[in-house]
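Anyone else keep sequences and structure tokens together like this?

Example one:
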Amino acid sequence: MTQRLLALLALTFFAAVGGAQTDEGLSDPALNARYQALIREVRCLVCQNQTIADSNADLASDLRREIREMIESGATDNEISDFLVARYGDFVLYRPPMQPNTWALWGGPAAMVIIGLVVFARVMRTRSRQPLDEDEFHEDQGAI
């Protein structure tokens, strides 16, 4: 009796876990390929660091369902992208287009690296011009 109860509980648990993760694709291989490509290009607005293909958030699941329904109804990839951008802004695209309002997204990382290199160079130049104290000189000589 106890074994049957444990087996029933285990089946219920695995059915619930498995049911939460299901995300059926499309039966047509060409449409399914489009679907898979699209969900890998849309950012999860909850996680923000994942695509909706990788996210388990409820919003990501809703967006996957919405994209699947739009593909089934005959919408093009551009129509789907335009719909998502109109609804959520350019941030929803994992690779937003290069335009004035997204320049910070594209140029920000490069600007931060350049600023870091400039600060590093200035600190090194300033430190190289400073004379060593007598104590620092002897400590450096002892370390060799």
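And example two:
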Amino acid sequence: MPVIKSSTDLRNNYNEISNFCNETDETVFITKNGRGDLAVMSIETYERLVGKNELYLLLEESEKYIGKGEKKPLKDVISTLRKEIKHKKI
């Protein structure tokens, strides 16, 4: 069940909300005048969410290449990745 707090709760109980987000990896939804306004989460939760989104975008992009018939052998991809890691490009 989502945790919903008012903007007043956020202002008056910041430390409690911060501790909750950091300890549980849950998001707290903040309302303003009774309507949804913000989503508050820990930095770790945010970074994980952004990372997942980046991965999904890369997978979507790769599916487009596959749909166009643009494929590379796995050994070539691995070789390229190793070179980029060695030269610290990624």
